[in-house]
Design brief:
The chain is mainly alpha-helical. The chain has helices at about 1-30, 35-45, 50-55, 60-75, 75-105, 110-130, 135-150, 155, 160-175, 180-195, 200-230, 240-245, 290-310, 315-330, 335-355, 365-385, 390-415, 420-430, 445-450, 465-475, and strands at about 435-440, 455-460, 480-485, 495-500, 505-510. The protein has 4 domains: about 1-135, no CATH class; about 140-245, no CATH class; about 285-415; about 420-510.
Length: about 525
């Protein structure tokens, strides 16, 4: 009977999430970002049979694969942007279910489970609509991986290793970062189980073998495919690129300072579709004292970013960790200690890789979800053991719920996306503007406009003389050149070509190519 009630409350939460998603959909369906354009472009290459172009070492494939059914339904670019929001809503639904399953594993009471799931709705809506990104997909898949790993059946039945390995490899196919996280986390968790459950060590070892086998076989296929494309053994180029990006001699993203860059293939919107080809300066923190200090500064800066992200969440993630440590030392129950070690260890390990390179809020969504689960669990167990009073328990629950609502509410109140880029692209299309495009500024906005125009964006030019600029535009066979801002940048713009469009932000010139 209790299980039926739980499922009814879960259905209610899912329906509320869908209800608010529908309300917000029309307002946030046009959100676009450069990463999203790349994922869509890759999915379109799969649909159109351009498999060699679709295989990409920087952008992991699963998110693009999941977009394929939507792209088959909607052939227009705006439709594909909208499709990413529909996919995100679906992923959000499954993420809420995964959270519910973990709460059940932790034996929280029915009332508290419902409160927690309801509190997760605002933050899940924020994850759904903020970016076109696979980070919510990664969080969802890893939560299912944890759910199977936490299940008592994992120690009792062999097949559970197949499920954990399968969800682990799906998470890797969603983001290459997961590769080493899974291997370290899965191996150490199984060693932890062997030590703490010696009677089940036979099944645990078999599940370890099954899980590693399915993970390495499937991931190995993808690793082989991308390694063949780039001519070097790699699990993905994202990590190396981002590490070079934060190096001591880095000038930032290449497309922002190197001038015009030819997109990697004839169907790419911009060079950002495959940053693997950008030549950034490699570095090693052990090569010199300066490099080692630079690495320390990266870690400190990333820790600062984590603190800042936690501030937006009323410092609840840190509060949850303190509660968990207090519970660990106060409790005498082995199962409680095991749960704290498992969840807290997962959080620390997942964050640990990012803190060495770069931290962005969306990279931490999985750990943030776990930190709130850990906080609610710790409060519940501390209250059940009479280690905290009722008033403290209630006040803490209210603060944690408020933290899950506060920042998403600010986002939805003050972030005001519009149809601006799409509407501008329609005006440009009416003037016949399409083809090879370049500009003097605003790389990101130009990427959006080029996507809607079905055009190829070669990037932003460097500061050049009139003759040098003309030569550059001719060399790359640019059809239209966008000039942003005041006209004083050039002595005269007539040398570029005919002015074909103008608004308050930029002018568009049809380039007179001499080739």
């Amino acid at each position: 009977m209790e299980r039926i009630k739980n499922q009814r409350y879960l259905i209610l939460v899912l329906m509320l999430y869908l209800f608010f998603s529908v309300i917000l959909f029309s307002h946030y369906q046009y959100i676009i970002n450069p990463d999203g354009i790349s994922y869509i472009s890759i999915a379109q290459n799969y649909v159109n049979g351009h498999i060699s172009y679709a295989i990409n070492g920087y952008w992991s494939p699963l998110y693009s694969w999941l977009l394929i059914p939507f792209i088959l339904l909607w052939k227009v670019n705006l439709g594909n942007i909208i499709a990413t929001k529909i996919l995100a809503i679906i992923i959000g639904l499954f993420t809420l279910i995964a959270i519910y399953l973990i709460l059940i594993k932790l034996h929280l009471n029915n009332y508290l489970n419902t409160v927690i799931l309801l509190a997760f709705i605002p933050i899940m809506l924020y994850f759904t609509f903020q970016f076109i990104t696979p980070d919510l997909l990664v969080a969802c898949l890893l939560l299912y991986y944890l759910n199977f790993l936490m299940d008592e059946k994992y120690r009792k039945k062999e097949y559970m290793g197949l499920l954990t390995g399968f969800f682990g490899v799906l998470a890797f196919l969603a983001k290459s970062y997961v590769f080493f996280f899974f291997l370290i986390h899965f191996i150490f968790t199984n060693l932890f189980y062997v030590k703490n459950f010696p009677l089940d060590k036979g099944n645990i070892k078999k599940n370890l073998l099954w899980g590693l086998s399915i993970f390495l076989v499937i991931s190995g296929i993808w690793v082989g495919v991308i390694s063949e494309k780039y001519g070097v053994i790699t699990i993905g180029t994202t990590g190396s690129y981002n590490y070079e990006l934060v190096g001591p001699e880095s000038d930032g993203h290449a497309m922002l300072y190197k001038g015009l860059i030819t997109p990697p293939n004839e169907f790419s919107v911009s060079a950002w579709e495959d940053p693997s080809y950008f030549q950034l300066k490699k570095w090693n923190p052990l090569e010199s004292t300066e490099n080692f200090i630079h690495q320390i500064m990266i870690i400190l800066n990333n820790f600062y970013n984590i603190v800042l992200i936690s501030l937006y969440l009323l410092f609840v993630p840190f509060f949850s960790i303190l509660l968990a440590l207090f519970l660990f030392f106060k409790s005498n129950e082995k199962s409680i200690k095991n749960n704290v070690i498992f969840i807290l260890g997962t959080i620390i390990l997942y964050i640990g890789g990012y803190i060495l390179i770069i931290v962005e809020g969306r990279y931490l969504w999985f750990s943030l979800i776990l930190s709130f689960i850990l906080g609610f669990y710790s409060l519940n167990e501390l209250y059940n053991q009479n280690d905290i009073k009722l008033n403290f328990f209630r006040a803490s629950i209210i603060i944690m719920v408020a933290a899950l609502v506060f920042y998403p509410l600010l986002f939805f109140m003050y972030y005001n996306p519009s149809l601006g880029y799409y509407e501008t692209s329609l005006a440009l299309k009416s003037h016949g503007i399409e083809g090879n495009i370049a500009s003097n500024d605003q790389w990101e906005i130009m990427d959006y406009l080029s996507y809607y125009l079905d055009s190829r964006f070669y990037g932003v030019t460097t500061h050049q003389s009139d003759s040098e600029l003309k030569e550059t535009l001719n060399f790359y066979q640019i059809d239209y050149y966008f000039v942003w801002g005041e006209s004083g940048e050039y002595s005269s713009k007539g040398f570029i070509g005919e002015l074909v469009y103008k608004n308050q932000y930029f002018e568009v010139f049809k380039v007179n190519n001499s080739y």
